Amino acid sequence: MEKLSAADIFALIVFGICWLGYAPIVRRFVPDAINLGLVGLRISWMRTMLRRENRIVDSALLGHVVHSASFFTSTSLIVVGALLSLLSNADRVQPAVEQLAFVTAIPRMVFELKLALPLVVLIHGFACLTWSLRQLNYTIAMIGAAPERRLVAGEVAERLAQAIGRSLSAALSTFNTGIRAYYFAIGGLAWVIGPWALVVAAAAITGMLIWRQSYSTAARHFRAARAAMDDAHAHMPRE
């Protein structure tokens, strides 16, 4: 019976930790990550939204977010279909892949399992993206139902801003998980080359994502902008 080698099992475990453990790892060990800082920024956005008489700007920004989520959801469905087609034609794909100089012969069942890995990752990503769209719709309903500026202030306004901002953050956190599926699906294809290629790909993708979130130029600019906005909100007169 065709079985995975010990190296393949180890590589699959490492990949699973990097893929599914990325968000908990960032929350625990990268407290200055952009995505974590955005929660407070979105709450500040909702505070500002509640003070505005005209909320066209907020509607336009949310429309852009919904459009992005819809685009990636549709794209995921297309890519999942393509991978299913690839998997169903594994008998023709495998000889072509094994002709590559850096790929060794792989048992058929193991080859199909290796092709199934990116498929599973993308199906999970598709589920996250569709759930993100649903959460965005809930958030839009909250914003649409938000009272006019003259009718909401003080503690009630703060509670409303907190609730809507955190709802938006939950939706976009799920969206980010769906987007990361593209990265890890591409990394999952490295398993066809070999188990150590999968380990390197998973570690490299995780490292790249953490670097973007905390050490990139964008991350530094984000932290500076957030600090400035926090100061501005702290000195803003309360209604």
Descriptive tags:
about 80% helix; elongated
- The best one-word shape is elongated
* Average pLDDT for all residues: 85
The total number of structural domains is: 1
Instruction: Detail the poorly predicted runs.
Output: none
Q: Could you give the order of the helices and strands?
A: HHHHHHHH
- Our estimate of the beta-strand percent is under 5%
Range of helix content: over 70%
Architecture blueprint of SSEs:
Layout: H1 6-29, H2 34-51, H3 56-88, H4 90-98, H5 108-145, H6 154-188, H7 195-214, H8 217-234
Q: What do you see in this structure?
A:
- Helix 2 (34-51) packs parallel to helix 8.
- This protein has one domain (6-232).
- The chain has helices at residues 6-29, 34-51, 56-88, 90-98, 108-145, 154-188, 195-214, 217-234.
- Helix content is 82%, strand content 0%.
- It has 239 residues and is mainly alpha-helical.
- The chain is elongated, with a radius of gyration of 22 Å.
Question: Summarize this, please?
Answer:
This protein has helices spanning 6-29, 34-51, 56-88, 90-98, 108-145, 154-188, 195-214, 217-234. It has 239 residues and is an all-alpha fold.
